[in-house]
Amino acid sequence: MEKYDLCVIGGGPSGYAAFMRAVDFDKRVLLVERDRIGGAGIFDGALSSKTFWEISKEFSSFSKKMSHYGLAKPVVQFQNVLKEVNDAVIERSDQLEDHLRLVIQERQDCFRYVKGSAQLLSSSEIELKIDSGIEKVNAKNIIIATGSRPRKIPSIAIDEKIIMTSDGISSLEEFPESLVILGAGVIGCEFATIFSNFGKTKVHIICKDERILPFEDFDLAKVIESNLEENGVLLHHDSVLDKMGISNGEVEYVLEHPDGEKEVFHAEKALVSVGRVPNIENTGLLEIGMELSSSGHIIDNDTQTSISNIYAAGDITADIALVNVGELEGRHAVEKIYGNPKRSIIYENISTIMFLNPEVAGVGLNEQQAQKAELDYRVASFDFRCIPRAIAMRNTQGFFKILVTDDDEMKILGLRAVGEHASSAIQAVALLIATNKGIEELSELIHPHPSIIEGIQECIRMLLGKSIYKPFIFQEYLQCKCFRDGKYID
Question: Hey, which of 166, 173, 384, 407 has its CA 20 to 30 A from 285?
Fold first, then answer.
């Protein structure tokens, strides 16, 4: 029986990062992946959908500029778009596989990769099912990084052709004339943005709440919602799906409205976007007594599971399901096993991006979360219409919003950025949150001019009472207020 210091099960972002960090410690490491290296971080997930979004954003912007100058709008073919997406996926996939192959080639006596499935027989024994047959191996330590897949609803027959999850988008051959999306969270709104940007698909969103993105603040969601509607998206607010099925080759769905009335709608295709579920089937986790949540996620303590030599990283845990978080967890698990990490993983400063119209980025708490935690805080928002770079770009839709503690230290609780370059503007704030610093450090930095991040600096200066633009003058663009004892005060 082959013996290893570490076996990593799953070759997505978390598992790949874990394997490569283990290489640094010069241990004997086995990586097992049943399908494709890169996982949902590349295929039918982060990279593919974001490439799709980039193309749609570029097309929409170009179309608007052509129209503005009185020129004919461009024509786009779905197959050309899909080819560009696939080219990006193949480029990244080949890069990861080539890198993995060359790393293993350097030390074949230490590093091994097998394509197949892995099932735990005990806390250290693993059964591999590979092309050559069944093999059993032993590992002193194990990292589970088997990822997740789109959640399905038992009452909806998903065929990935007419009624799809995000995994089925790549099976489309043309832009659908109409598409209904069940779910108004990040993934649902991202695909609504993508398809409406091309202007060839009538998009419907079924939103069970009174607005989309219910986990975000109202002012942020309102901007995204208005732009979707301007792009022709039909939002079914406060609507509960009664049933959805295929009738005469198209989607028929019935909604129940708040007054109890039911209404029938039709669409060419449907996208079910109601979250993701962990991949725990046939892993042996239940059989060896691993502690799992009711939803099937591994319960972990800073990546270490209830079985001390087994660790978990990525979507298989109940933590934030993001590529950057999964990679961080995978690396951290290895460092806990073989190194001496200085601290536990900090989730409070995890940066996120929502690929919408416009782009949204965030770190730390929003106002909803701060109020739910019964925190007193101060908040300032700075509109993009006051940022020279946004004016020069002729795209002034958006704002920065910063929350700080309601005390003299004014430590940053969170930031939301809505607009062009949003994702590039938040890292300094993320660092301040991680180091538990106040805002003074950023207020006097000399930022490049003109740049979008100058808006963050002015937002901070507003909180310090020394901004160039005064909020009591530009009340439509700038706001600075305090939330204390459960209410806003002047």
Answer: 166
157-163 — which CB contacts under 8 Å span 24+ positions?
Answer: 157/245, 157/246, 158/272, 159/246, 162/246, 162/249, 162/250, 162/251, 162/268, 162/269, 162/270, 163/244, 163/245, 163/246, 163/251, 163/269, 163/270, 163/272
Q: Which residues, 6 or more positions from 34, have their beta carbon under 8 angstroms from its beta carbon?
A: 115, 116, 117, 118
CA distance 12 to 40: 7
Q: Which two tokens stand for residue 331?
A: 């690396």
Minimal CA–CA distance to 276: which of 440, 46, 487, 86? 46
Question: Is there a domain that residue 76 lies in?
Answer: no
8-state DSSP, 385: G
Instruction: Say how far apart CA 56 and CA 20 lie, in whole Å.
Output: 34
- What is the rounded end-to-end Cα distance, in angstroms, of the chain? 71
pTM of full prediction above 0.90: yes
- HSE-up of 366 (CA within 13 Å, CB side)? 19
Q: Is residue 345 part of a domain?
A: no
Q: What is the pLDDT of residues 366-397, one digit of tens each?
A: 999 999 999 999 999 999 999 999 999 999 99
Instruction: Tell whether 137 and 282 lie within a shared domain.
Output: yes
The answer to whether position 66 is within a domain reads: no
CB of 115 closer than 8 Å to CB of 33: yes
Q: What is the CATH number of the domain that holds 102?
A: 3.50.50.60
Q: How many domains does the chain have?
A: 3
Backbone angles phi, psi at 445, to 5 degrees: -60, 145
Residues 315-355: tens digit of each pLDDT: 999 777 889 999 999 999 999 999 889 889 988 888 899 99
**Residue among 439, 153, 378, 144 at smallest CA distance from 278:** 144
Cβ–Cβ under 8 Å, residues 387 and 452: yes
The per-residue pLDDT of the chain, averaged, comes to: 93
> Do 299 and 293 contact (CB within 8 A), yes or no?
yes
Q: Which amino acid is at 321?
A: A
Which pLDDT score is estimated for 373? Answer: 95
- Non-local CB neighbours of 280 within 8 Å, separated by 6+ positions: 146, 286, 292, 296, 298, 316
Query: Tell me, what's the pLDDT at 112?
Result: 95
282-to-34, 80, 126, 137, 470 alpha-carbon distances in Å? 12, 38, 12, 17, 61
Domain that residue 118 falls in = 2-43+84-149+277-338
Inform me whether the pLDDT recorded for 441 exceeds 80: no
57's tokens: 């954003």
Residue 287 scores a pLDDT above 90: yes
